[in-house]
């Protein structure tokens, strides 16, 4: 989004070529060698059809690069990288470890226990905050995903200028500093006569989830060969049938991963929700922010671990979905 | 607005191709963006020129440049105005923290991204996942982890004790804030640089070796230029949110570290000065847009691909 | 195979299509194109990339609206119809097999769109699978098929609709050479068996010559020549056609008015020539001479002489380049046997051009 050449977003056929996108969208190098060769059909072919392999798929020859580059001999490179990646994970792993601490104090290890998990699962405040978060996230995810799908399916018909402007508008929640977005939304909500609470939360979350939901849907869409839809029309499918029977099924991996990411973004949001929530609509991040502010706390360890698991599951699922699509594309 | 009017505004052309929807279906998403993103931004701009009520939050609909005056000037009891550097200092601190964060993140991310590209495709996919997971992990969780590490009886101090060093106060200062910021934004830096390098044709590096370049020469003259678009994206992606950060200064800086984000939030909380908070928001937003504009111009001039959004 | 409804040929009149290029200029993809394609014909649109042949195919399919002109199928005008309402189907260059559907479902897709009853669909799909010899793989996904198999499924899917015209957009271009040869024969067989009119787009002149009943050679958005393969090869009307199809020597010369035969001077010697298009005025002209219409003799056996400048052994023949006295260079193929050859680079040779087989072509 908002790339320098935002004027023609659809031109980015290869999603991976798109600059920075932390969407779990795989290395542009795509999966290893095409594995198509191992599914050659046995029998049923005439002699003229005895081709040993499917049509050759051009592939990136990257395997031999590292040696050729001799970069491995930059001694520091690997060390820096491994240490940095450890730096990324170690603190979180410590949180996970402490979540199983049986002691009353968060920081003094007194043996393995599920005790704090049991405590968290029966803590009325945490449960109600989780409920609010799940409700907001569910509505925002569905709404933003629908909006994103409709936009993506229509975006090619926008003029260059229209596309540039709407891309900028839709990407704005990512570019504007969160704290500004938070206070601005609060001011806006007040201005239109609402007061903080569940409805403003849902509206704001829907709005800032749209760009996140859209990233993967858009990448998937621009990777699809237009000939699929032309051929469906050619075979007699009316407009809506093409969309229902061909477009949506082919778009589905992008839609699912987009929805998953929108869900995580909504579940995680603290900054904007903080300004919009009222006493009755405290979300989970707001609640645990309050707990953390008071210092380390065994319940927070547990909640943090659960949120970490959510991130791992969703990111991995979204990555697997995009990998499947990369494989399909190789066979095309 | 009539259908034709919408079409004109959005610039729809021709008939929808099979599988596409007509241009009207793009409208709901754009409308939501206009109302709930652009709308609030405009409102905050307007609020910054309004007056503060006698008590409580909110605004009085009366034009006043007071909020912007308040940013630089202060009146004492006698009615004399003099320069007030408190808020500028917050901006300075934010800028310093954001710059330091960006510098460290880029310094680490470039070698990491380069290292990632030397792996097999399968390993690269895995490493991208490894970097992406923290990105999608709750910010509070990631910040909280550092409280566990740095608190008085936390992991780091325990380790210090074991090896016979004095435990010390590690939390609640700007150093802890900086560590938290770096930790938060490192994935933001790695991913765009990796994206830029992953599309790089390493045969160019081989050609440079073949033509007699040394390793550092290859990195400086061949690889770095290819990565520069990604590096610029990474700078934008680290600096902007770090500049406006709120969570890390509060939780790791213990409220002693007052960055712009905290200043703004405070105006809508305990300080109850909405116009001033709005003015601060406008200033930080203007700086962000200016930076974004400069970056896009740079990108256009050097025909680099730069992304300002993740 | 049930006999499909065969009613009428396809007629395109005065078709125009203009694209705007990235620089803002206009590109005429189709410029006043008129064609008559007969019922049951294997009609080839041949030309280099960007000549408009694919645009024409897409216009017939309804995937690209025309800026001007009309398309008729028999007496029915079809250019205003939505693609899904035209009794015309396409085999796409990329095959465009739906990746989320099985082979069987892909072939059945178009029939389901017609709301054909289920047993009839099943019967038709079986029939099609048999026709393209893929009865063994109905349950597979397209990604599990080889390129050649995908090609057959695409063909079966389009033919299942029993279209009046089948459009094929470079359907063989993704296959390797050997497989392509096999599929060429296969396509001819299927076309004969079904009797459906085929409109086949290709940039491969050999493919066009071997498959087409008639060929329209396209350049710059319009047909440069339309005719049978023999017509096109032996009587090219323009330098472009002669050059695009097969190997040709071009000789700039002067035409002599015909008292009894049309003649021209080549290398100082008057030879008999012919023109594809009726009478040709005297004056400067370009001759196209196919290498196989030139024979080499001993220097004294022919009036026209030259010097052998290049000799390449190709196995099936010797490829020679002969320089004439006036500086023109001619490529010549010498068929085997090569024994007792008097040919040596640098040596003098006699050249004989078959009378009447040097063709006058227009420069455009």
Label this structure with key terms.
heterotrimer, A: 332 residues, mainly alpha, MetI-like fold, 12 helices, disordered N terminus, C: 364 residues, alpha+beta, Rossmann fold, OB fold (Dihydrolipoamide Acetyltransferase, E2P), 2 domains, 6-stranded mixed β-sheet, 5-stranded mixed β-barrel, 8 helices, 20 strands, 23% helix, 35% strand
Describe the protein's architecture and organization.
The complex is a heterotrimer of chains A (332), B (310) and C (364). Chain A has twelve helices and no strands. Chain A is mainly alpha-helical. Chain A is globular, with a radius of gyration of 24 Å. The longest helix of chain B has 32 residues, at 86-117. Chain B is mainly α and 310 residues long. Chain B is built from 13 helices and four strands. In chain B, β1 (50-51) and β2 (60-63) form a beta hairpin. Chain B has helices at residues 3-10, 27-47, 66-72, 86-117, 121-135, 139-150, 155-162, 174-198, 203-210, 215-243, 247-251, 260-268, 274-301, and strands at 50-51, 60-63, 73-75, 81-83. The mean pLDDT of chain B is 83. By secondary structure, chain C is an alpha+beta fold. Chain C has two domains: 10-234, P-loop containing nucleotide triphosphate hydrolases (Rossmann fold), CATH 3.40.50.300; 248-361, Nucleic acid-binding proteins (OB fold (Dihydrolipoamide Acetyltransferase, E2P), Beta Barrel), CATH 2.40.50. Chain C is 23% helix and 35% strand. Chain C contains eight helices and 20 strands. In chain C, the strands form four sheets. Chain C has a six-stranded mixed β-sheet, with helices on both faces. In chain C, strands 11-12-13-20-14 form a five-stranded mixed β-barrel. A five-stranded antiparallel β-sheet of chain C has the order 15-19-16-17-18, with no helix packed on it. In chain C, α2 packs across α3. The two termini of chain C are 46 Å apart. The model of chain C is unreliable at 1-6 (pLDDT under 50). Chains in contact: A-B, A-C, B-C.
